[in-house]
Specification:
Radius of gyration: 16 Å
Number of domains: 1
Bound molecules: coenzyme A
Distance between the termini: 23 Å
CATH topology: Aminopeptidase
Helix content: 25-40%
Number of helices: 6
Order of helices and strands: EEHHHEEEHEHEEH
Number of strands: 8
Amino acid sequence: MTLETTRLILRPWEDSDAEALYKYASHSDVGPAAGWAVHTSVENSREIIRNILSAPETYAAILKEVGHPVGCIGLMPWKAVQTEAELGYWIGVPYWGRGLITEAAREILRRGFEDLHLEKIWCNIYEENVRSYRVQEKCGFKFHHTTEKVPFPLDDTFRTVNTFCISREDWLAKR
Ligand SMILES: CC(C)(COP(=O)(O)OP(=O)(O)OC[C@H]1O[C@@H](n2cnc3c(N)ncnc32)[C@H](O)[C@@H]1OP(=O)(O)O)[C@@H](O)C(=O)NCCC(=O)NCCS
């Protein structure tokens, strides 16, 4: 499945994307903000493409003007509820603040509600991630609840997570 927006192609990750993935996912401001570890080598990125990013509905975000992946966006199963999914996304630091993830997220919401017939899409955000709150706001998500003291996967600390949600009705009303 390939999706397209004005500036992006969203398509499954390929082995040959490993170098581009490493370039952006090796920056310490990217993965940890979303709870995953900084990539350590091109080979590590290739393994992650094979083992993690190969999941259904996980897309490499190819910026048309550069011709290679600069980020990732996708829908993951949510608590085994067939009609609900969790949105996840990131983009390489050089491309922050250009509205690219908002553009990609709008297309993934369309994919989720229109093609996959989802009823709700959720997003979990570490409390301090103000950029991601703004993406949520622009896409029409609403704050749902806060969970305190969530174990952080990369060390033995705990974080506060804010959970946002958009329903099919909210999405239809915002179109
Ligand atoms: C969060 C992230 C995906 C946003 O991607 P992006 O393409 O830069 O997002 P957008 O440009 O669509 O929107 C970012 C918004 O944050 C705003 N922003 C940037 N820095 C900010 C700051 N310090 N405080 C508040 N808002 C800020 C931008 O102004 C923009 O809002 P605007 O359109 O109203 O100007 C990107 O920063 C990222 O990959 N971060 C690391 C990984 C991550 O956090 N993933 C999400 C996990 S939930």
